Amino acid sequence: MKHRILGYMILLIGTASMVFARQPVAAAAATTPDPEQATLTLAFKALSAGDPQAVAAAAESVTNPAARLYFQAGAARLQGHPKAAIQFAAKAVALYYQDVEWLPRNELLCAELYSELGLTNAAVVTARHVQTLYNGTDISKKAGALRSKIEGGTDGSPEQ
What we know:
Order of helices and strands: HHHHHHHH
CATH class: Mainly Alpha
Low-confidence stretches: 5-29
Radius of gyration: 25 Å
Structural class: mainly alpha
CATH superfamily: Tetratricopeptide repeat domain
Number of strands: 0
Distance between the termini: 79 Å
Oligomer: single chain
Helix content: over 70%
Number of domains: 1
Strand content: under 5%
């Protein structure tokens, strides 16, 4: 009987030590930076800095295809190729329409590029679409500001 109780205690202690031994590993994994997130941060910083080569280089490391197309569009835009940029962004919208994180960004980018190309009606319609669909988000606010700029000072509020 003593051996059986002692055996159970060893089993319990062994199991508890395995559980506790795994906790620091799990905690370390939670604090380890995500390489994809680091790449996205780098790409966003390069976009903000206006460095097309850095954006293109970072885009090659992005694993999410909708995000990769977004950054490729950004690099083309920075290089002065808005038609190529709109092709990348439109491809992302068409192929990755279920990507709820990157679809709004790509749609807004399309609206901005339409505006840069002088396609005012397409820019306004696309911006209105983005503003209405993503109402209450930062993307919606940016779309409203774009509409306001294009339409010459209107408040940019979505039409009902």
